[in-house]
Design brief:
The protein is of the alpha+beta class and 96 residues long. It is 32% helix and 36% strand. The chain is globular, with a radius of gyration of 13 Å.
Length: 96
């Protein structure tokens, strides 16, 4: 499984709305496209949200991401997750 650590700086005051979007919309769409969410955490005092997502990605990570980002279900979300974010950091990680 290929895994990615994603760290978001959430706009001040937007954490509750972002977490609801993540939980109710983003997670189901990711899972429908073969992703496994390995964990998600937030620090509301620092407006930081961190999660780890994995995918078997038989055609590679980029192909899995393209399928997800091009998905009609993602386009149908009530908001774009990035609208709530000030910054995004991603890095590929490996289980130990």
């Amino acid at each position: 499984m290929i895994c990615q650590l994603r760290t978001y700086q959430v706009r001040p005051g937007a954490m509750d709305e972002f977490v609801a979007l993540f939980r109710d919309h983003l997670l189901p769409v990711r899972e429908a496209y073969g992703y496994t969410i390995l964990g998600a955490w937030n620090d509301p005092e620092e407006n930081t949200f961190v999660w780890v997502v994995g995918h078997e990605a038989p055609d590679g990570w980029d192909a899995a991401e393209k399928a997800y980002y091009d998905a009609p279900e993602r386009a149908a979300m009530p908001a774009n997750p990035t609208d709530f974010l000030e910054s995004v950091q991603t890095q590929m990680v490996q289980p130990v």
